[in-house]
Each structure stands twice: as C-alpha cells, then as structure tokens.
Design a protein that fits this description.
Blueprint: E1 3-6, E2 14-17, E3 20-23, E4 31-36, E5 39-43, E6 49-53, E7 57-61, H1 69-79, E8 84-89, H2 101-104, E9 109-113, H3 114-120, E10 125-126, E11 131-132, E12 144-146, E13 149-154, E14 157-163, E15 173-177, E16 182-186, H4 205-218, E17 224-227, H5 235-257, H6 262-267, H7 275-278, H8 282-296
Parallel strand pairs: 7-8, 8-9, 9-12, 16-17
Antiparallel strand pairs: 1-4, 2-3, 4-5, 5-6, 6-7, 10-11, 13-14, 14-15, 15-16
Helix pairs in contact: 4-5, 5-8
Length: about 300
C-alpha cells in the first residue's frame, strides 16, 4: 500500500530543518509517497527526488530546483524528522537536479561525476535552449567527485553508482540499490516524451542508446526504476526507449550517408510511429542530428554503426 503525503499549503512559520533555520514557504505541488520500505519518491520540485531512509542518516538522489529547495527540505523533514542528510547525489549538472546543493554543502557529502562537477563550475551555452548558464558558486558545487563508479554501504543495503558516458550529458550516472532492487536513472530514461540529449554538454544519440542497453543489462522484471519525471517505471520502459533510440540512430546514419541537412532529416519524419505517445519530435530530432554530427563528422559512417 503506497503511503502518500502532500505538503499542506499555508504559512508554517520558521522551522529548523536538518540543522538550518529556513523560512517555510507555502510550497504547493510538492508531494511524496513511500514506494518501497524506507524509500520515498518526492515530486514537484523540478525533478524526481529519491529519499532513502535506511538508518540514522538519509541519502538523497537529486535536489530539485533552487527555488524549490525550502519546500523540498520541509517535505524531507516531515518524512524523516530530525535525521541528517549524509549524502546527496547530483545525477547530472542541470539546475533542476542541484537545488539543494546551496543549502546542504556545509554538512553533507555531495557526490557527482567529475564531468558534472566541471559543468557546475563552467558557463556553458546550451544551443538547443538558446541559453547561457552561469557557474554555480564554489561552495554549492558537488564536493566529492568520481570518474568511473563506486558504492556506499548502508544499513542492510548496498548502493552502487556508475557513470554512463556521453548519454544525456557527459556526466550522467545511475544508482542501484541492490537489496531493494531500485534503479535510479534520472534523465537517462523518458516516458511519454522524447528523451533529452544535451549535446552542448556532451550528450549524443548513440551514447544514450548504449546507456539504455547498460540499464537493461543490470535490471530485471522486478526492478523498480525511477526517472527524472513521472512515477515508478519498469524494465519494459527501457526496452521501449532502446527501440526508439535504435530507430533514431539508424535514421540519422542514413541521413548522413545521403548528405541530408537537419531540415531534410526532420522532413523524413523518422519518429512518426512515436508521435501519438510522445508528442512533437522536432527538438529531439535536432538533438539527434546535432549530437551525431559532433561525434561522427571526423569519422567514416560505417565505422560508427
């Protein structure tokens, strides 16, 4: 039976949250439910946040948007009163995953892949958004980096986290709670929409296809999967995404073999079978084309299939 609680609207005054005196803003839209013993999915802060409450301390995966941090911390306090957040993971660099960094860096180990840490300190121009990002303050950036992967030993649980290179970005990670068989994949999986390929910060179509295959290889039909948006997913969602990405990859290879421009590639409508379920593919096809161009323009097409 899923336990669901929603942050009550209204002025709650100033409260102590996890060692910090924070104003408790009325924060509509943030809600949570326990989807496995000791594991909560918190929604409404910009991305899905996973809270693992397995011992005296808490582990968080992702931190929502900066402007949602107060409401998110209030929700965590209601779910696990008086417990300290010992570890916070940033699954990638994008702002909707790093909002809690600004509040927890003093007393929390904030873990991210080294490429994510580099982007947090950089000022990337993201072409497909037409947006210039500013560096995060040094004291809000992840304070613990890794290159390939590692693990945390928790009470009755082993948390494995690994890097999947050049997929959604070049710093994405997945996290697997082995005993509970919970796989947190963040932006590496999309349902009811097309996947996001942030080619301006290292993502590309074949990398995301291969990352999806890796996630398929480590999951089972019993695995509970948490993406950046939506509710709890299952292995068949990975299977469907892999088929979509394989189709997109083959289509863009054919486009390059025939010398098509981006506009001509989009006009071939290679995602027509997915439009009813996932919506307008225009941006996705732009990301597929641009990301492929950046990675294969210096190679011969047959060598990259």
């Amino acid at each position: 039976m899923l336990k669901r609680r929603t942050l009550i609207k209204g002025a709650l005054g100033s409260i102590i949250v996890l060692g910090r005196n924070l104003p408790a803003y009325p924060q509509s839209g943030i809600s949570s439910f326990e989807f496995s013993p000791g594991f909560y999915l918190i929604q409404g802060s910009g991305c899905n946040v996973v809270l693992a409450d397995l011992a005296d301390e808490l582990v968080l995966i992702d931190g929502g948007l900066p402007e949602s941090a107060s409401g998110l911390l209030n929700e965590i306090q209601m779910l696990a009163p008086a417990k300290r957040i010992s570890s916070l993971f940033n699954s990638n660099w994008r702002p909707e995953h790093c909002g809690l960094n600004y509040h927890l860096a003093d007393n929390t180990t904030i873990i991210a892949h080294e490429n994510t840490r580099l982007w947090q300190g950089a000022d990337p121009y993201v072409e497909w958004e037409h947006k210039q990002y500013q560096p995060m303050p040094l004291d809000a950036q992840a304070n613990h980096g890794f290159y390939t992967g590692s693990s945390l030993q928790l009470e009755g649980e082993t948390l494995i986290y690994e890097h999947l290179p050049k997929a959604h970005t070049d710093g994405d990670i997945y996290l697997h709670f082995k005993a509970a068989d919970i796989l947190v994949v963040s932006d590496l999986l999309a349902v009811n929409s097309f996947p996001l390929i942030d080619y301006s910060t290292g993502g590309w179509i074949r990398g995301l296809r291969d990352a999806t295959q890796t996630l398929l290889d480590i999951s089972s039909d019993n695995t509970q999967i948490v993406a950046s948006q939506g509710s709890i997913l299952a292995r068949h969602d990975l299977i469907e995404q892999h088929a979509l990405l394989e189709s997109a990859w083959q289509a863009v290879v054919l486009a390059f073999q025939n010398g098509l421009s981006l506009y001509e590639f989009q006009e071939t409508n290679p995602m027509q079978n997915y439009v009813a379920e996932r919506g307008d593919p225009t941006l996705f096809l732009q990301q597929v084309f641009r990301s492929a161009w950046y990675h294969i323009s210096e190679r011969t097409i047959p060598n990259v299939i």
